[in-house]
Amino acid sequence: MPGIVYLVGAGPGDPELITVKGLRCLQAADVVVYDRLVAPGLLEWARSDAERIYVGKSRGVKAMPQEAINRLLVERARQGKVVCRLKGGDPFVYGRGGEEAMALQAAGIPFVVVPGVTAAVAAPAAAGIPVTHRKVSASVAVVSGHDTSPTADVPWAVLARMGTVVCLMPLSQLEGLAERLLEAGFGPDTPAVAIERATLPEQRVVEAPLGELAAAVRRAGLEPPTTVVVGEVVRLRRWIAGERTGPLTERPASYQVP
């Protein structure tokens, strides 16, 4: 009998933001296959005897090609193993989880998809920004920051009609992103923000008009993973976050649990 593969979303960074179902799958796994964006603390919840296999990538350097990851999942499952494929955020939001699911389906391997909390909504929330807000923004678009060229598979002209634009992993292409959005119709003074290591204690936030965001991010020295939010909802930070500098997903230090 083959084993089974759980395609689990690990959430945006904070280990406690994994779902209950995702945590149960992790704790049941014989093999944990994980990415760079998975918090190290989350792996501590796996069984001590579980095999841990790192397959992440950093600045374009891949620990393992995607095709090899697909084969790995199939092979371990055929050995009768319970496999937890742990991905940062949600496995089906720029996580290539769909490709892995297709490979498992083609190989006849049972699998379960466990959605996770995507940084597309969690990173703005942790910084005090709702991606939609009554009378401010009724729509949100999520785009990848890996290719911001005019020929990228992104409907740039459509984005100007969206209330909020969230861009995941855009640091290396931030100038290009701003240029495309300005060409699409956003004004250079449109509120924008970059959020580094969202939901974690070391979270940093840089806010600037869209036309100045890239320069402000360079001065601050932000590093991946960083999420960018563009739109009027960014102005709501001052009323929602107030004086808090850490992630809003974290309980204030002064609060004592009864």
Can you give a write-up of this model?
The protein is of the alpha/beta class. It has 2 domains: 4-114, Cobalt-precorrin-4 Transmethylase, domain 1 (3-Layer(aba) Sandwich), CATH 3.40.1010; 119-240, Tetrapyrrole methylase, C-terminal domain (Methyltransferase, Cobalt-precorrin-4 Transmethylase, Domain 2, 2-Layer Sandwich). Helices cover 28% and strands 22% of the residues. Helix 6 links the parallel strand 8 (140-144) and strand 9 (164-168). Helix 3 (66-78) crosses helix 4. It is globular and about 60 Å long.
Keyword list:
single chain, about 260 residues, alpha/beta, Cobalt-precorrin-4 Transmethylase, domain 1, Methyltransferase, Cobalt-precorrin-4 Transmethylase, Domain 2, five-stranded parallel beta sheet, five-stranded mixed beta sheet, 9 helices
Shape: globular
Number of helix segments? 9
What is the number of strand segments? 12
Annotated CATH architecture of the largest domain: 2-Layer Sandwich
**What is the CA–CA distance across the termini?**
48 Å
Helix content range: 25-40%
Our Rg estimate from Cα atoms comes to 19 Å
Order of helices and strands: EHEHEEEHEHEHEHEHEEHEH
Q: Output the structural class.
A: alpha/beta
Q: Low-confidence parts lasting 5 or more residues at pLDDT below 50?
A: none
